[in-house]
Amino acid sequence: MLETTQLKSDSLLSTINETKSQKTITSYDRIIQRLDFSYFGLISMTILVGSIVGGLSASVVLSNDAPIWQLCLVSAAAMASNTAAIAQAPIKWVVNIFILSIIVNSLLVIINI
Q1: What is the DSSP letter of 61?
Q2: Whole-number Å distance between alpha carbons of 30 and 44
């Protein structure tokens, strides 16, 4: 009888812990889980969009005669995003580096307009 009670309490604790862990999942983690379904589609889109935004940023930086470090920053951000995607890094890395690349390139475009 004591063993049965112990087993029931263990299963109850594990159920409570699972429920708590499910509640702590953020909306960002839910988005990442949804994107995991179409991993290769996500990779192709990050390469396409990241390259386009990087190229546009590079042309704006070059047309403004900005310092060379800005062009290096644009290139490094775009290449990091493409490298993570081509190397098939974990989906969270691909998304985070892509977002960082878009932010960096957008800021440099805004600075040079």
Answers
A1: H
A2: 21
